[in-house]
Structure formats: structure tokens, C-alpha cells
What we know:
There is one protein chain. By secondary structure, the protein is mainly α. It has one domain (2-192). The chain contains 8 helices and no strands. It has helices at residues 2-35, 48-56, 59-83, 91-105, 107-117, 121-146, 158-182, 186-192. α1 (2-35) runs parallel beside α4 (91-105), α3 packs antiparallel against α5 and α5 (107-117) packs antiparallel against α6. The chain is elongated. The model has no long low-confidence stretch (mean pLDDT 91).
Amino acid sequence: MAEEDESNKRHRHGLDRTLALSDGVFAFAVTLLVLDLFVPTLSPGASSTDLWQALSKEYISFLNYIFSFLIAGVWWNGHHRGFERVRNSNSTLRWLNLLFLLWIALLPFFTKLLDQYSTLQLGVVLYAVDQAAAGLSLTLIWLYASSKHRLIVKNLDKRTIGFAAVRSAIAPIVFLVSIGLSFIDPNFAIYSW
């Protein structure tokens, strides 16, 4: 009995470390997002109107920042929602989590790419690929942890497990569909998000 308790403590400690790393990656990614916002340089004697005009030229950057921040929030919330039911950790779960965090850490890069090339199909597609990969990775985490109640709460019913899997798969499907829409017009893809 004491050995079992010690084993559970080690697994829980590993899970706590996994979640701490995840929160750190999210915090770093959303911080990097704001660093790409441009502060205009005005000549001495510029007016508030000049500042407003310069800032209004950057509205796309602000919208992309807000959108990506909200997307990061959706992934962070989904990650926490899934891990609320996870009770143990193992090497495979940690590797799947690292795969998910890879896409989260790339979010600032793909946001900047989208910001500079939102009218080009490739810029939009690459952003959508990053988001779809993040969502698929998060779905894989849940499918792995919940398979045969491997790492989740033992009394969780199959309906709840299935609902969580479907909910987790919706966002990556939307981003994958948007890739097809980008062939018609990159703006269609962006609006679908």
C-alpha cells in the first residue's frame, strides 16, 4: 500500500511538472505575441491626429494579436480542461504534450507571418496548419490518456470521454477546412476562423 502511494505521488509530481511546463510555454508565447506590435515613430511636433493615423495603419497587427491571443486562450483552456481529468502521467503523455507545446511556441512566428502576408494564400495556410496541428496534438493527448482509462479518472463514462474527444477535434477541423477555403480566397479562410 505504501509503495502504491509513493508511485502515485511520483506520477502526480510528473503530471504537475508537465502542467507547469505547459503554463510556462503558454505564458512565453502570449508574451512574444505582443512584442511584434509596432509603435510608430513620429517626427518632433507631431499631433495626436498624426499618432492616430499612424496607429490606424497598424490595425491589422492589433487584430492579429487579439485573435492569436484568444486562440492561445482557447488552447490553454482546452489543455487545462483535458488535464483536469488526467490523474497520472507517463513518458508517452509527456511527449505528446511536448508535441502540442511545439505548435503553441510557434504561434508568435505564424502570427507575424499572417500579419505580414495575410493576403497571400501561403501565409494563411501556414497559420491554419499551425493551429490545426496544435488542435490535433491536443486531441491525441486526450485520446491517448482516455484510451481504456489509461491515465484518466477511472469512473469517467464513455459518453463523457467521447464528447471530450469530439469537442477537442472541432477546432482543428475548422482550421483544416479553412485551408481549402484559402484556395478560393485567403480572406474566406481567415473569416472562417
